[in-house]
Design a protein that fits this description.
Blueprint lengths: L13 H7 L3 H13 L3 E2 H13 L8 H21 L3 E4 L4 E4 L3 H9 L8
Antiparallel strand pairs: 1-3, 2-3
Pfam families: DUF7344
Protein name: DUF7344 domain-containing protein
Length: 118
């Protein structure tokens, strides 16, 4: 994901950006991968996303909650983030890697006014 002529860290249009981000599971993935700055396994990511989006500790999650988030990430959220160039999702290996500039995308996710970044 490289900066465009306008200086945006997002390779798509503004509509593309808001279509991919702004959803709690995808935003959590971006923030977690920005913090980790390394590839993670799908199950570990699903546990952290489930805990963050439910505002509970990892110990308070049920296996069913984690499985539900894992399936949602695998079939819905990670392919969208991969297509947008925000992450690299190796579905057969169940590994997710952050893009080189995941930190910039994370800053946009965390911004109170993400439009100001464009």
């Amino acid at each position: 994901m490289a900066a465009t002529e306008g200086g945006s860290p997002f390779d798509g249009t503004l509509d593309d950006y808001f279509a991919v981000l702004g959803e709690k599971h995808r935003d959590a993935v971006v923030e977690i991968l920005a913090d980790e700055d390394r590839s993670v396994h799908l199950l570990a990511l699903a546990e952290r996303v489930a805990a963050e989006t439910r505002d509970v500790s990892l110990d308070d999650l049920t296996p069913k909650e984690v499985q539900r988030v894992e399936l949602s990430l695998h079939h819905n959220h990670l392919p969208k983030l991969d297509e947008a160039g925000i992450v690299e999702y190796a579905s057969e290996e169940k590994r997710i890697s952050p893009a080189d500039d995941i930190g910039a995308v994370s800053d946009l996710v965390e911004a109170e006014d993400p439009l100001s970044a464009f």
